[in-house]
Amino acid sequence: MKYRSSLLGLAVLTLTPLTAHANPADYFGFGARAVGMGGAVTALANDFSANYYNPAGLSTRKDLELSLGYAAVSPSLNINGLDLGVDPVTGVEGGIILRGNAWGRTIALSIGLHLPNERITRLRALPELQPRFVLYDNHPQRLVLTTSAAIELIPDTLHFGAGLTYLSDTSGRLNVAGQVDIGDAAGTTMISAVDVNFDAVRYVSAGLVWTPVPEIRMGLSFRDEFDLSLDIGVVVNGDIILGGTTPDPSVLVEDARLEIVSQNSNLFSPRQLAFGFAWQEPAWTLSIDITWMQWSQFKSPTALLTTELDTGDLPLSIPPNPKPTAPRFHDVIVPRLGLEGRLYQDKYLTLTGRCGFWWEKSPAPAQDFTTNFIDGDKYGAAAGFTLAFDNVTEVLPKTFYLDFAGQFIGMNSRYHLKVNPADPIGDYISGGHFVGFSTNLRFDL
Q1: pLDDT in tens, 200-210
Q2: Residue 345 burial (CB count, 10 A)
Q3: Distance between CA 149 and CA 164 in Å, rounded?
Q4: Confidence at residue 146, expressed as pLDDT on a 0 to 100 scale
Q5: Domain count of the fold of the chain
Q6: E strands of 346-390, at which residues?
Q7: Which domain holds residue 49?
Q8: Which of 7, 354, 366, 398 registers the highest number of CB atoms within 10 A of its CB?
Q9: 185-194, 291-300, 335-344, 348-357 — which is least confidently predicted?
Q10: What is the pLDDT of residue 411?
């Protein structure tokens, strides 16, 4: 491979800071019923969405269940009134729950899935000076796969569940060897090889559901932090010569070495602890959730470039690259409220309506320094319904459900006034909103 190809590989692998952030369930919900309740389902989730909200809820029902659906969210995020063109989030959602009995208790195993229909994941290169909505900008387009197990500890009273999600760190090196002619590019000859590793990273979730009396249900769930890293670079080994096209080239440096490495936080989701309380009457349910999110551990998504150069006696050096600026995020508390009620019922059909509301103060500070990791305070409103069909045919003797929910998420306008009057970006105003829907078809088996 000639010198020009090697330079291209170096540029691609080392000069591109790649960033991506958490999965779509963190931002837009998982499952139509949960979306319609505004996410206030820590004590109530008992379908495939319990894989995300509280795995203990998987064992609160008896039937096997199969779910399949679709979700879409369209963002409109702007700076100074100009839309940034953040990509929509669309994908297939669903899961399966296998329930049985052991030791006189209900046990459940489940898999939940969100599969984007455009990209499994997307990486985008932006420096920290580039203004962007760091938690949303083309990043929630990624595969979500959760696996969970749950058991009924005390019949109809106490349930416990836990789950694991598997992702992979990525590290890779472009190894280049040969000779570099500093006088004539035609005398440069390089041979390259690529070595890429994918190391498994696991993060855990767990939860409890407690029903002290039939009217009251409480839930507690924990989702651990995960931070996937991207570690890529190029290593060049070889001789520095003159006269590479001649029969007898001059060797200026033997075994010179250049190593450039790019490291950054590629995918981050904060540690979360959620408490849910639900009051259940025969015809309606009221639920309240409080979630703590540890955003203070958020790491800069900007790549840190490190270089090492060994050219023997030649007076060559590369100055060190500056470290990324700390993002200064902080922890937040997110309250959620959901209401659900039966609107109609007969022998074959039951119609249930629901609505939900939530508020989240932004974990990001105003971008008054050198970074431009934009976010704002958010509020959400959602509504939805479930059609439950009973005794339809002999093929489907058990109930099947059609869930639908729509949601609106508003991001308040925010002024970012730079401390430095000579800042290259300057002051600006950010804001926007999201509009989305989710639908699922669920079968009791």
Answers
A1: 677 899 999 99
A2: 13
A3: 9
A4: 86
A5: 1
A6: 349-360, 373-374, 378-389
A7: 3-444
A8: 354
A9: 185-194
A10: 96
